# Entry
Amino acid sequence: MRTSDSTDPVIHIDPTLCTGCRRCAGVCPVDAIEGLPGEPQTVNADRCVICGQCVQICSVYASDWADSSPQAAAIRRQERIRERDMPADIGEPLFAAYYSYNLIKVADMMKKPGQLRIVQCAPAIRVSLAEEFGMPFGTLTPGKMAAALRRLGFDRVYDTNFGADVTIMEEGTELIRRVTEGGPLPMFTSCCPAWVRFAEIEYPDLLDHLSSCKSPMQMVGALIKTYGAQLDEVEPANIYSVAIMPCTCKQFECDRPEMESDGYRDVDEVLTTRELAYWIKQRGIDFMNLPDEEFDAPLGQYSGAGTIFGVTGGVMEAAIRTGYELLTNEKLPKLQLDFVRGEEGIRVAEVQVGELQLKVAVVAGLQHAYQLLDRVQAGECDYHFIEVMGCPAGCISGGGQPKLMLEKQKSMLIVHVNRPSMDTMLHLRCANRMRTLLSSSCTMNFWVSR
Amino acid sequence: MSGVRNTLNRSTSRMGSANRTSAVASSFVVADGGQCIGCKACELACFAVHGQASGIGASIGTVSVPVVPKVYVVRAGDTYVPVQCRHCENAPCAHACPVQAIRQEDGVVMIDEERCIGCTSCVLACPFGAIEVSPVYRAGHVITQSGLTHRANRTALPRTAASKCDLCAETENGQPACVEACPNHVLRLANGISDSPPEPRREVFFPRL
# Structure
């Protein structure tokens, strides 16, 4: 198990700003925020699962009134920006809780000559990025995002949805194997790095229940430096691979020692949605008036199943569909499994898959995982498959997503991931095509040993 | 919550609407002393709703100007309290204003920021410390005052104006944004006829956070 205290604790609380309101402690699922009410809080890096919900809820900002003059306030602001590694010309208010920023590091690396710069984007980004430019909730901008990333200097713009499809394929297969051949059940999803870290810290004896599949980001990362390198005829060492993610824990995930194949990191650096917005603004790109551009093929193609990964129950829904078709060789009669969707809490369902009554559960918000895991530990949990997402409504409410100012807007933030149309739901065919494509070209490392 | 609702209609002018038919005389937002946790969610909500006309959206990323709210959370020892305008019936700020930029309409004391000359007379007159004079921003940029320059570097100085709680008169009907945003339900909209015992007089100076 890796702890984050030896390097970068990722989540920080500025003691000069924190008023000790402890709202961050109220949303922390693992009690990692420590301190007395009214006093500056600290983050216990050994307990923190880096979900970033404390950053999202923090409303204590650096006020100009706190300084003796506007000039003093401006100087203090620049000091804070430097401490946080934020772009110098950033205009937004600075809050007490913040996470480590990688933008300056990535922008510097992009200038390095002789490398192929490749980026992948998570499904939750295209739903939220426009909010950073004043557009209404749920404005979908995948085309503008691809165009912006090309203008930022990336040579290939790929889609993490491709990796989500691979994850579904592998995870669905693993589930069926565990159910039919006998394996640790229930099987837990392993896409959410905060959840994986939570399991490592709180329930290390249950780690063999986690799926062995890498997350979609790491899947695409592994593909980029193998299959992607072959496509572009470049050495993996000359590929600079960046991921745009809604999550504050994804950088931690990509830094994990096991996320390396043949001496190369699967993903080199991760930027959050907010960091991508900073970057676009810093470069003076008129985001709202960009023409729509396509993702690059083939690692930018995906099915409808990949699209719904960003929402609670999305992984479960996609995996059930795949598992059903693998087991029965028939299509699931009703493709949209709304019963596993929903927000915070635990939702359960039963699906008849051939002769098997598959019992599944979806957990949104890590604080709800304790009771379920206690039952698994006690051998009282008869579910086959459990999806766990660390954030309240899945990746869409991740710690790296746009931070909202009004409480009522936070509760209004509903999932706007478009329902894929029926013809794009043929994810299994797509997945099988990908499997053929990939297995014919090179050996991939999609699994991680814990 | 007391159950008192802000029944002010959306105003049609800077100074408030003349056709408010159901306004409650001397409504104001008051905080339950000792319950505030100092999270400043009220300040942020206040800034968010008043900045919508200047292009400030739902996300923090759309903010390009300093946060200038109309409610101020102050601290005294271990106690936090949000301070804002009490919309005094005999408003001393309006009496002090030399340019009649402050007027009372249907019990709501409003400041016309366009007319205000930033003289701070109202700040001195306010018994609650509810008014601040701050730079004026429009469309994400500070407005400068022609003829005024910084003594050292000769750059133009910003135009300043007084600002204070207007009971969210320029926003949609309903509770003031600060009342809605307060996670501890510390803030409530009270009417002029007191429905709670008067707060004890505070003898301490409240430093701003």
About this structure: Chain B touches chain A at residues 37-41, 43-45, 47-49, 55-68, 72, 75, 78, 80, 132, 134-135, 140, 177, 180-181, 183, 208-209 (CB under 8 Å).
